[in-house]
Amino acid sequence: MFYRPADGHGLSHNPFNAIVAPRPIGWISSRSAAGVDNIAPYSFFNAVAYEPPQVMFASTSQKPDQDGTKDTMANIRHTGVFCVNIVEYAMRDAMNATAAALPAEGDEFASAGIKSASCETIACPRVANAPAALECKLTQIVHLPGETNLVAFGEVVGVHLREDCLNEGYFDARIFQPLARMGYLDYAVVEDTFPMPRPPAPK
Fold it and tell me: 14-189 architecture in CATH?
């Protein structure tokens, strides 16, 4: 089949986010200007540069108690910092619990029973036992076409790695089994990896 998104797909569910899958999950923690801690999962997320290391995530909806966006983006607008926590399979239920739309004054760490810890370089909480956490300083927020489509870019200024996830100098995904977002309500888990060396340059 072929469809133009502007005309609709005619299916019972939108296939777009099932096509671009699996997607890594950025479990973004932030703190409001009033000092309320927040954490929420975003699957429009990825790393975008090595030097300096940079990441992005997109927020595509809004809450009635925020100005055209959700708590995470509103917090980052005010504070200029956020933390990306990597989600392991063992944390899937806690991650899912933080997808609930609490009021702006709600603390998802508390409501989901997640232990937090302080970041080292920014005034922001992180998930204490996450396999990895990336402390980020906001570089820019880009407003994409669409009323509530916002992308935040951040430079990674601090990196936490859980010691048991290190294996002979490698950060080993097989140890913690990262969670990934598929389409609809489906998720996937990375349980194994395989090497694929790059081909040599043509002579």
Answer: Roll (2.30)
